[in-house]
Amino acid sequence: MKTFLFQGDSITDANRDDENEDNFGLGCGYALLLASDFLKNRKDEFRFINRGKSGDRITDVYARIKEDIINIRPDYMSILIGVNDVSHELTQDCGVTPEKFEKIYCMLVEEIKEVLPDIKIFILEPFICRGIHTEERWEEFSGEVRKMAVASKSVAEEYGLEFIPLQHIFDEVTADSNARYWSVDGIHPSAAGHQIIKEELSKAIIKTIDA
Predict the structure, then answer these.
(1) Which of 33, 18, 23, 16 has its CA nearest to residue 1?
(2) What ranges do the domains of the chain cover?
């Protein structure tokens, strides 16, 4: 049985129960949606663990590398990180620059692959929508998150990892100005938004495991 680990910030966390693992306590977001499909249709192939943590920046994921990644020894892992690196800077003056973001992301991947050379890592593109949390400083939020997206893609390309684009999809579905249907505040997806992430990540996973 293969282990799939979800890593990231509150979008991945999605109110998970950190007292329960192995297909339980996955939260109410894309991790649960994806695991539900695989557990139904590919029984006994995977166990799923969610270690996403609300509020995390790339520096925080890196700080948790031993306990919440390496010690779990996953066969597959997805990472969705980047929006807090921007949000924390704009609202609390404690974010991470795009340059430092990319540097630490590279360190994270390198150290994981040193210990787990066969791991398959999926990098999800950080994304942003208009909403109550982002509207007032929309140009800054949008511009900076898109820089994190470029950095994330660069890391994926550097290490030959699967990159899952998301921003263009959220741009398309929110083009009719009904952004709140897809994101409750501009950062956190609604149920429909989580379904988008689940579908895109699922396609990448299936392509990889069925190759």
Answers:
(1) 23
(2) 2-209
Q: Which candidate, 127, 122, 204, 141, places its Cα nearest to that of 173?
A: 127
Q: How many Å is the Cα radius of gyration of the chain? A: 16
Q: If phi over 0 gives left and psi between -120 and 50 gives alpha, with beta otherwise, what is residue 41?
A: alpha
For the stretch 121-161, pLDDT in tens is 999 999 999 999 999 999 999 999 999 999 999 999 999 99
CA-CA distances (angstroms) from residue 125 to 46, 118, 204? Answer: 24, 22, 13
- Residue 64 · residue 51 · CB < 8 Å: yes
Round to whole Å and give the CA distance between 81 and 166. 12
Matching residue, tokens 């924390």: 88
| Unique residue bearing structure tokens 């550097």 | 158
Q: Are 11 and 32 in contact (CB under 8 A)?
A: no
| Fold exhibited by the domain 2-209 | Rossmann fold (3.40.50)
Report whether 182 contacts 190 (CB < 8 A).
Answer: yes
Reported pTM: 0.96
Assigned token pair, 127? 């994304």
Rounded CA gap, 191 and 84, in Å?
Answer: 20
